[in-house]
Amino acid sequence: MSERIYNFSAGPAVLPEQVLREAAIDIVNFHNKGIGLIEISHRSKEFMAVAEETETLIRELMGVPAGYKVLFLQGGASSQFFMVPMNLLKKDQVATYLNTGTWSKKAIKEAKLFGQIEVPYSSEEINFTRVPADHEYTVNPASEYLYLVSNNTIFGTQFQTMPNKDAMLVADMSSDILSRSVDVSRFGLIFAGAQKNMGPAGVTVVIIREDLLERVDEAVPTMLKYKTHAKEDSMFNTPPCFAVYCVGRVMHWLKELGGVEAMAKRNQKKAALLYDAIDSSNGFYRGHAEKQSRSLMNVTFTLPSKELEADFIRKAAAQGFDGLKGHRSVGGCRASIYNAFPHEGIEKLVDFMATFAKKHQ
Amino acid sequence: MSERIYNFSAGPAVLPEQVLREAAIDIVNFHNKGIGLIEISHRSKEFMAVAEETETLIRELMGVPAGYKVLFLQGGASSQFFMVPMNLLKKDQVATYLNTGTWSKKAIKEAKLFGQIEVPYSSEEINFTRVPADHEYTVNPASEYLYLVSNNTIFGTQFQTMPNKDAMLVADMSSDILSRSVDVSRFGLIFAGAQKNMGPAGVTVVIIREDLLERVDEAVPTMLKYKTHAKEDSMFNTPPCFAVYCVGRVMHWLKELGGVEAMAKRNQKKAALLYDAIDSSNGFYRGHAEKQSRSLMNVTFTLPSKELEADFIRKAAAQGFDGLKGHRSVGGCRASIYNAFPHEGIEKLVDFMATFAKKHQ
After folding, report:
1. Do A1 and B34 touch (CB under 8 A)?
2. Chain B interface mutation, best of A8, A17, A25, A35, highest count of B Cβ atoms under 10 Å
3. Eight-class DSSP state of A325
4. A182: Cβ–Cβ under 8 A, 6 or more apart, which residues?
5. Is the same domain home to A241 and A271?
């Protein structure tokens, strides 16, 4: 095997190597039962145990209180953009959305199909370089919920603290779930595609307050009602078994490392190292996000010219730093450093950045 | 490794062992690039190549004509139950459904949310022991399409030939896709959950005639429009990468074995062996399906008593025949013998059945 490269991809993203190795064994022969993990019935006691354990670990690690369901769905976070309003809003009801990036924009577009959507804050005009503080917007008291994207993968911004408003929160946590502690009881619904901090692409975790399950209109298709999946413990139809299994293994890994609090400390150190390298480069590297809004998961920065950026990305790739090209909406570079990204990879990148800057400054 | 058991599960179901072994390697280190298959960006050239090759192989093996799109979606066949009418029907338009089992019933229920659904044939009163011949029903000429489930997993029935009616066909082929040749040009849309003949759970293949893409109402959520996925080659959002990869590996395996025609011959032989064992048991084993409707994929049968059935299933399991318990709607036993189920497993089961019958007859 060639050495593992440093994978800065925004998602699907780096996973713990031990999870990959466990999956490789179980795929061929699950628990030594003579049957592969991906060919086993989802109704078998073996797979039911996997799904239950995965849910239990998510509950434990996130501190999900009683009165909430944890669901494993398909269709990605993009399907939640319409499922949330389809299940929680009626045509004449109001919901408030904060527009802090590409994913909130897409969510707003879908929500408008289902209710009255108000957007009291948008950073679109400044290319989404920041997220708002509480005093920068008000929430219509008639709002059924306040929707936010807790971390904006593309622009590299993140809510340092969750909004403290008199409204039930709904959050797309796809790119920072389990990276820090969150008080779940403040949320009506949290969702996250797995492919950043939880596992491979193919499963979306939804955490929903149980009283919200009954809001949905009967005329909504069965598969699109949260309550369908809640009633059947996400086994109404065949779940994406392999992805659920992987999430469980990642949760085990996270627990072994000390859980979410320990992970949050690691993440702070990792991000600090990289932001320090940017801030101490005498302007050679420039962060895209405003400092108070900086993401610990996706670090976005530019170089003095497009040519230097292309050269930087090419030379970095040659040294085993993969996926540093920024999203086209921002340009420049992006280092996605989710939970499973190793600290030493950032140490090495920072060295590379210093050398590169010295040469071209 | 303990020996591989014989996995008669209805789905997720047995996969070719070589595919499991390939996946085990690629998951840890994809093409020796130092990055695992399930942590690689879906926009990487490596994964794009996987997705393209998978589509090309499906097109080649099924003989998909020009003018059709092949999509990789999520949400299982159950999501197609509503996506089909949501995309193809308007409220006042008619569609015709054949009710031949649990999955058609569910599809009819969802379709009624979107249009005028007519059901000119149902075998529900006889516990779905058969599918209709063409002369047993008529299709309203106003129908936008004629919907059928080509193989009924639970009841073990299958259309021996596709309906020959003056209507565009739409088929749920979840449990017999790629098991025999089909003239795709007679269909407006074919869909199949992967977890029987194509791969693991987590991806649904949809084959759709391109002119149908534009029928959908603009007010339908973006993710629920086929055209959204068609325009972006199933990369509008992150696809279920691992499942798509596995489908590609299964397609390779199928091609190596000679393709769909060769597979159809294998399937006929396998099923004949098992049905002969049933028919020659002097009534000890009784097939659930009428002979003209027998499925080559799911063989359903009962024994003289519930006690004998339980004993049969227990003793079979002890000898490495797994998943033979019938669905609760039929009772008895079910042997699901999809493409990847090995011939020798049926030879051994047939021996076991003969010995068991002799002892208890």
Report:
1. yes
2. A35
3. B
4. A62, A162, A173, A190
5. no
Minimum distance, in Å, between the CA of residue A1 and any CA atom of chain B: 6
Same domain for A65 and A109, yes or no, is: yes
Contact B243 A32 (CB under 8 A): no
This complex has an ipTM of 0.97
Does some domain include residue A87?
A: yes
Helices A102-111 and A76-88, axial angle in degrees (round to 10): 40
Do residue A160 and residue A24 come from a single domain? Answer: yes
Tally the domains of chain A: 2
**A–B CB contacts, 8 A cutoff, strictly below:** 218
A140 touches chain B (CB under 8 A): no
Domain shared by A175 and A272, yes or no: no
Residue B112 designated active-site: no
Exactly one of A172, A225, A227, A325 is catalytic; name it: A172
Considering only residues 7 to 36 of chain A, which have any Cβ-Cβ distance to chain B shorter than 8 Å?
7, 9-15, 17, 20-21, 23-25, 27-29, 32-36
Q: How many CA atoms are closer than 13 Å to the CA of A44, on its beta-carbon side?
A: 24
Residues 79 to 118 of B: which have CB under 8 A from any A CB? 79, 81-82, 86, 106, 109-110, 113
Domain containing B180: what range? 18-256
Buried b (16+ CB within 10 A) or exposed e, A133-147: eeeebebeeebbbbb
Take residue A30 and report the two structure tokens written for it: 């699950």
Treating both helix axes as pointing N-terminal to C-terminal, what angle do B102-111 and B76-88 enclose, rounded to 10 degrees?
40
- For residue A296, is it within any domain? yes
* pLDDT digit string (tens) for chain A, length 361 residues: 458 999 999 999 999 999 999 999 999 999 999 999 999 999 999 999 999 999 999 999 999 999 999 999 999 999 999 999 999 999 999 999 999 999 999 999 999 999 999 999 999 999 999 999 999 999 999 999 999 999 999 999 999 999 999 999 999 999 999 999 999 999 999 999 999 999 999 999 999 999 999 999 999 999 999 999 999 999 999 999 999 999 999 999 999 999 999 999 999 999 999 999 999 999 999 999 999 999 999 999 999 999 999 999 999 999 999 999 999 888 999 999 999 999 999 999 999 999 999 999 8
Which residue carries 């320090």 as its tokens?
Answer: A276
Catalytic residue among B26, B69, B172, B225: B172
